[in-house]
Amino acid sequence: MNNMKDMMKAAQKMQERVHKLQEELNARTVEATSGGGMVTAVVTGAKSLQKLTIQPAAVDPSDVEMLEDLILVAVNEALRKAEDMVNAEMSKVTAGLNLPRGMF
Fold this sequence. Notes:
Helix content: 40-55%
Distance between the termini: 31 Å
CATH class: Alpha Beta
Shape: rod-shaped
CATH architecture: 2-Layer Sandwich
Number of helices: 2
Largest sheet: 3 strands, antiparallel
């Protein structure tokens, strides 16, 4: 019976650490660029686009598709970086539990 109490306390402590880390990660940002820095995307650990910067030279009215592609590349790379950051930090807290990748 005592072992079960200890397990429950340990699980509760881990849950608290995970919750605190999630809050910290949600406040962190990662950045990615495309087109040699023509487009920059900043994404939070919550995988929310926080800022998108487009250099004026990237805006060519005759080639909107290129700008769209640059935006997609920058945003998707920033989202990937955010996911990697969250997974790396969470794996430190949940080491040994063999939780599936992307659970957080």
